Amino acid sequence: MRIAVFSTKSYDRDYFSRYNTNPAQELVFFEAPLNMQTANLTQGFGGVCVFVNDKLDAETIAAIATNGIKLIVLRCAGFNNVDLPAAKAHGISVRRVPAYSPEAVAEHAVALMLTLARKTHKAYNRVREQNFSLERLNGFNIHGRTIGIIGTGKIGQAFARIMLGFGAKVLAYDLYPSDALKALGIAYVELDQLMAEADIVSLHCPLTPETKYIINSDRLQHMKQGVMIINTSRGALINTKDVLVALKQGKIGYLGIDVYEQEEKLFFKDLSESIVQDEMIGRLMSFPNVLITAHQGFFTHEALEQISLVTLTNIRDFEAGVVNSNEVS
Ligand code: NAD
To answer: Which atom of ligand 1 lies closest to the CA of 157?
Structure first.
């Protein structure tokens, strides 16, 4: 089967080329994202391989279905960018990589948290300029703090275990509490209680209509003064406008984000020679207590290897008529 791979970067090409040993599985790489403007590139292909910021809305899905696309393979876990009813209506199978390395994302959340808590991003720059002063680098311990985890699936659980290792108190909220975490002594509480008691809130739920803007001005009012918020899940879990107000007021003391509401216009691109038109990210970057990374939580060798292998298996299984557990419906 010929697969058009969209939003390709050098590492996608490297890893897929390394693991694709089947000559019948021909992967053609496009740097462009898949959306309505690029849908005509799918002519002559049986399937498409996409990532987090490709936009598979109903219109795009109708267009690629007309071109004969029967399979969408996502090289990620989240599928909020795919209109599933539209895919179903056109008889297109959607398969994803449900777990490629939960620890990769959980560890990145910890990296954001520790950098903010200990100001290592500032210390790094200071020491490079031979400024060895400790003035204003005062941080705080994670040990003994209350960490609120929203969403305790694979990544949330990995994060929770690391937090227990730090000696933190962990509160969790999920529609489906995990028995494994309860057995470790983690308390599941209502969302309002978690928000009110947590020193650090880390978001690990998917983006759904229910979780969109789960961090908003109402919720922020009930959070601790100076709370730290970490978001490695999806940008729109946070209402960025509300968060900017809370940062200005000092209500949010620290913000670490690996995802951003309007990231598709920015992330995964080198815009260092461009005038960035997005006012909100500019404002966010101006705060000394905000740390932004450009959706790199997944970006480890272990995860890229697993993403390639599972994606290639998803394609092979589809061709063999095997409905595997990675099918999204
Ligand atoms: P998962 O499906 O294993 O876990 C998600 C958990 O969220 C589940 O336990 C589910 O019950 C819970 N949940 C769903 N709706 C909820 C709600 N309304 N309130 C509270 N909890 C709710 O997913 P995962 O593998 O742990 O991934 C979590 C998210 O991380 C993904 O959806 C994706 O958005 C994000 N992610 C980010 C990166 C990155 O590079 N930054 C990489 C992979 C995944």
So the answer is: 26
- Architecture of the domain delimited by 102-292: 3-Layer(aba) Sandwich (3.40)
What average pLDDT does this structure show over 171-183?
A: 98
Which amino acid would we find at residue 283?
A: R
Tokens coding 295 = 């959706």
- Say if ligand 1 is within 6 A of residue 263 CB: no
> What pLDDT, on the 0 to 100 scale, is given for residue 77?
87
CA of 151 to the centre of ligand 1 (A): 6
Residue-by-residue DSSP string for 80-139: TTB-HHHHHHTT-EEE--S-S-HHHHHHHHHHHHHHHHHTHHHHHHHHHTT----TT---
pTM (two decimals) = 0.91
- Please tell me the distance from the alpha carbon of residue 1 to that of residue 318, in angstroms, as a whole number: 10
**Cα end-to-end span (Å), the chain:** 22
